Here is the input.
Amino acid sequence: MDNAITSTGMTTDPTLYPPYTPAVHEEHEHAVLPQHRHHFETEEQQREAGSFGMWLFLLTEIMFFGGMFFAYLLYRNWYYEAFVVASNQLSVPLGAVNTAILITSGFCMALGVWAAEVRQKGLLVVMLLLTTFFGFIFLGVKADEYHEKYEKHHIPGASFSTAMFVNPAAYGLKEDPLSPDMAQKTQIFFFLYFAMTGMHALHMIIGIGILAWLTLRAHRGDFTSGYVAPIENFGLYWHFVDIVWIFLFPLLYLINRHPLK
Here is the structure.
């Protein structure tokens, strides 16, 4: 059939001039929540981007701590006798208590994430406060351990003393005496001990600071209206700190507690 020609001389061929349909403006989920940033199309996209960024950050943290773990294992292999005797100076009961405290704080943090997801404001605030409380207890126990090392002059530096390792019988220790040269290598153990546990404690201090900020916002009701990404991402950070300690405890406190005869 021939295409009709209008009075204006234009063809009505639908392949050339399709029928006009009004533009349909799809409403995206922009600004549904006040925390939604304009450069994300949807809130779910913003949430996934934040989660990806946190996982990427934790990957860099794994490489950071992994370097110290590798250095510890390398030096322990080189100076085995010194590292064994030095590790025997660490308190296993205090380390075990701190492990239980940190696992408990991680459990409270997991409950806090759940409380945010089910929009229970009161429970969320309580769980964040408990996580903070156990974090402070952990740091308190660690400070007590550090003070003991200070009293025994086991902090690396000019005041470091090897007398306890050269002549253990004089201090009531049932250890094999080390040569003065090997006893000096115990300073490497304590340097790595303070480096690894100190960086872990620093991560906890930073985490406690963020917890205070999150608790104030949770009390204000920011995370019980459907916006839970900050709580979820911080939960990943806190669990990572827990996992680092789970590796530090056996590595520093438990393996080869006594010299092999």
Confidence is low (pLDDT under 50) at residues 23-31.
